[in-house]
Amino acid sequence: MNLQELLSFYPSLNEVEAYWRKALLEVPKSVEPEEVIDQTQRVYPNPCDYHIGGGIWLKFRGLDGKPFWCLWQRCPRPGVRRALIHLPGYGTEVSAHPSLVHGGYHVLHVNPRGYCGPEGFGNKEWREIDGVAKVIYLNLEEPEKYGYRLWFQDALIAFRWLQKQPEVDKRFGFYGSSQGGGAALILGSILSDEGVVGAVAADVPFLTNFPKEFLKEKRSSAYNIVFSHLPENPERFKRCFYTLGFVDTLLHAPRMNYPVLLTAGELDDVCPYDLIYSLYERLPNTRAIIEFHGQAHSYTPNFLALAKTWFDLYL
Question: What is the pLDDT of residue 51?
Fold first, then answer.
């Protein structure tokens, strides 16, 4: 099997656009949280669950009725402020970013599928016994029921709520690390026709160029989560690879008609730099990529400062 053969299994660009347009239309345009928990003053002691504390928890329900949580970090400055949407890594952790809030931005962390909330990790149904999320391969042979379709629809539900907040500007920034970086890129693409995407910042983004990684002798542990679940039967394999195309940032790149910042780690063997460069080469608008010398896979320490500068420039 070669690269061209794998790419031939992918959906067309028109199919990708139609798939996500339909998913977007299924999301109500007006939503309200069913529960609000103000924990603005709380500091979370467990770094495995939370990077830093503070914020208001908002509970929503996905289209299938499954609850999920967002952490709303509102800028205290008066007037209308710009808002950023942050998405989690594949570890499903929650992050609060007070430096961005202090810099003048509202920040909404969205944690789709109820993977993590005010009480820590949840949704055992969508996890393996060891806690690893199943979303990347759940219902992979059925695109309309694919795990990431519902995952992104959760994110879109939260975004619709954010749009209605009177203190929020009408153009938004999207950002995240690893899965969160890839998801920020894809969510921006899904919303690109609405004129609401100001800029995206993606730190060491996952969900990028599955075919290229599949053909490597030594595959990334992150990408192998889904590769290890691909069936051996040729027709079923094709169906699964077809579905993966809907969440490959390469097929979303033509729709990214807004400034995009990417980072990559020189020694990153989880989200390898060559995959990220292959995305960078396809971006059609203002773009930048920063490769960090000697860095393996991690939340890039300098990323938030870089992202703030990017959003200051382009939002």
Answer: 47
